[in-house]
Amino acid sequence: MDLVLLLGFTVPVALAALGETIGQKSGVINIGLEGMILAGAFAAAWAAAITGSPWIGSAAGLIVGMVLAAFSGWFTVVRGADQVVVGTALNLLSLGITGSLFRMKFDPTKTILKVTKVPTLGDFVPWVKTSLPWMERLDVFIVLTIFLSVFLAWVLKRTGWGLAVRSAGEYPVAAEAAGFSVVRLRMGALLIGGALAGLAGAYLCLGISGSFAENTTAGRGFVAIALVTFGQWRPGWVAAGALLIGFLESLQFKAQAAGWKVPVQFLLAMPYVVSLLVLVFIGKRTLSPAALGQPYRRSK
Amino acid sequence: MKKVLSSGIGAVAGLALVMFFLVLTFMIFGQPVGASLKAMYVGSVADWNAWSKTLVKMTPLILTGLGAGVAWRAGMYNIGGEGQFILGGVGSAWLAKMVVFPNLALGGLTLPALLLASMAGGAVWSGIAAWLYLKRGVDVVIGTILLNFIAKYLIEWTINGPLQEAKHQLPQSDALPQAAMLMRFDRQHDANIGVFIAVIVAVGIAICLFATASGYRLRVVGASPSAARANLIPSQRVQMMAMLLSGALCGLAGGLDYVGVSGQIGIGFSQQWGFLGIPVALLGGLHPLGILASGAFFGMLFAGSEQMARSSAVGTTLIYVVQAAVVLAVVFARGIERKVLPQVEAEP
């Protein structure tokens, strides 16, 4: 088990969870995260398949994630609709659209679409392969995730925008009184979340598997939502939680290699069981933003 | 009278809305509208064969829809219908393995026992989520979603382990003997009397919600937590009961699938029925009779979409798009969140 393989499993969940953290800090719980990752994954795979470039693919994933975030935010933030209802609908919409397009545009009998993967450090710098083999699979997304887990923590804690976003999630009336637009803050936070969800999807296809299959996300978006609570709305801790999930996901491969006598389903269920257990032990002393999930309407 | 009239108008408007989005979705995805609509008609209501498929699909949709509706009415966002459906199947398959296969002489008690086991299975799963929320503060949405995935691996484990068929070849349970299954209308089709059970349950839930004191308390807890507090309604107990009922309904959907259609559990036991119950409930306005109507209607659409998939690359996935689009349109038009769905109160 090399470190970079472990980080590879961590990255999609971590990116999505970091984006969700920003959104939740502003007071929006984005249940549609799974759908955004799925749409991002499909867009990335499609664009990469057409252009042959994983970079254009990643950009397509990012853009589609943001478009879906804007769409969802228009309902939940601008019109103040129920966030759980809109998020659930968004997941269904994304599952339906990607499933339909995938079957229409690509041979339906061929359930997997192959694409070129994101190049890794080993491809750029050949000597790494021989002298530093554990670094060989390092890629831009892994570096970006590590950077973001520090950078976003700094943005939330130390910048004016971060303070404003936090106030929109804690006490929106105060944010508005201080001259900020809660709608604009929440939309901004949601768009960042959408962009990162799209990138997470792109990495699933272009970084890990090199392919797209229907419903390729397999619930990672929901794990990411749980991780935000798990990490108590702190980007660093959220990323650390994602590392734990990545480790648990990689366990099944380890078990196969080592020939453990554990039913494979137990290992597959581990990320979900552990997430739930952590939430149980965190219990009620959560640092949840006070206005999380509540639509904000300006009083007249 | 006025109320009946307005709900009639609402139903017609809802029907028109769904048809509008159906046609729009066909056009956007480049499907021939006329031919697709014809396939939908042929596959859902054209003859008894088609009706049979519609009836088989509307049964779980109505029940999981009711399950979602009951919980959401009480302010509990139960997204876990899928896991509860699966646990329903596992519960009855487990009882079948323990009791039915060893001694087939149970007679008339077999079916009720199997269905009760399915309800217990679903209720256990939703009960865990409710307990986690009420006692440990784990958000219902997150808890129920995580439990969905755990249920998915649980059923995969059971059909490869304790509940696997006696031959130990395929990942599935032994098939129930025909005598232990729900009565079918004829031998050639899957349609069975389970659909009557779903309809009766819907009417029963409607009566419970709108004509009993407990139903009233449930609605108050969901609609206005402060009013519930002021009237000394034990919110936590009501919410726990609502979640248990919700899980039992979703579990019953799984149980009816087991004793009515499949007769065994295997890979892909639930085809998203628990998840699809949520849009069914929302489009039914979270009212049991509305859910009955919307479940029946979406049963038709899903049956029709399978016919469509025979001649086209797409089918069922387009119905997902239609469902989602209609939910969003309703959110947009009526602002259901303000009227029906409760606002979660901030902790003071």
Tell me briefly what this model is.
The complex is a heterodimer of chains A (300) and B (348). Chain A is an all-alpha fold and 300 residues long. Chain A has helices spanning 3-25, 33-51, 54-78, 83-105, 121-124, 127-131, 140-158, 160-170, 172-177, 182-209, 220-230, 235-258, 264-282, and strands spanning 113-114, 211-212.
Describe this structure as you would to a colleague:
The complex is a heterodimer of chains A (300) and B (348). Chain A is an all-alpha fold. Chain A has 13 helices and two strands; from the N terminus they run ααααβααααααβααα. Chain A has helices at 3-25, 33-51, 54-78, 83-105, 121-124, 127-131, 140-158, 160-170, 172-177, 182-209, 220-230, 235-258, 264-282, and strands at 113-114, 211-212. A two-stranded antiparallel ribbon of chain A has the order 1-2. In chain A, α1 (3-25) packs across α11 and α7 packs across α8 (160-170). The relative contact order of chain A is 0.22. Chain B is mainly alpha-helical and 348 residues long. Chain B has helices spanning 2-28, 33-44, 48-73, 81-100, 110-136, 140-160, 194-211, 213-223, 225-230, 235-262, 273-283, 288-311, 316-334, 336-339. The radius of gyration of chain B is 20 Å and the shape is globular.
Task: Describe the secondary-structure layout.
The complex is a heterodimer of chains A (300) and B (348).
Chain A: H1 3-25, H2 33-51, H3 54-78, H4 83-105, E1 113-114, H5 121-124, H6 127-131, H7 140-158, H8 160-170, H9 172-177, H10 182-209, E2 211-212, H11 220-230, H12 235-258, H13 264-282
Antiparallel strand pairs in A: 1-2
Chain B: H1 2-28, H2 33-44, H3 48-73, H4 81-100, H5 110-136, H6 140-160, H7 194-211, H8 213-223, H9 225-230, H10 235-262, H11 273-283, H12 288-311, H13 316-334, H14 336-339
